[in-house]
Structures are given as C-alpha cells and as structure tokens.
Amino acid sequence: MVPATGGSEKGTARIQLDDGDVRLAEVHWYEAHGLGRREMKRKRYLD
Questions:
Q1: Does the global pTM surpass 0.70?
Q2: Burial 9-45 (b: 16+ CB within 10 A, else e)
Q3: Whole-angstrom distance, CA of residue 42 vs CA of residue 3
C-alpha cells in the first residue's frame, strides 16, 4: 500500500467480477481515524 494525499490510500488487489472472472485491479479507498477503510473503489484493471 502506498499512502496518497488527503487521508486516502491505494493498492492492488485481485477481485472477482460478477461473471466469475478474477482480475488484478488498482483500488483506492479512504480511511477514517478509528474506523478503518471506507468507500473502496476500483479504479482500473492492471491485467
């Protein structure tokens, strides 16, 4: 995970799509102090 600006984070993850395919994707999320991850979003596929 690489820290980004403004309390957000980004990283990579393997995600399973509705059709069953598994893809490598860049994901971004916001973190709130004491609450952990909030609002995770897939930004783009890397494969």
A1: no
A2: eeeeeeeeeeeeeeeebebebeeeeeeeeeeeeeeee
A3: 16
**Residue partners of 4: CB distance under 8 A and separation at least 6:** 10, 28
User: pLDDT of 1-47, one tens digit each?
Assistant: 554 445 778 899 999 999 999 999 999 988 777 776 677 888 899 98
Q: Which two tokens stand for residue 27?
A: 């994901």
> 29: Cβ–Cβ under 8 A, 6 or more apart, which residues?
8, 9, 10, 37, 38, 39, 40, 41
**Domain span at residue 36?**
2-45
Number of domains the chain contains: 1
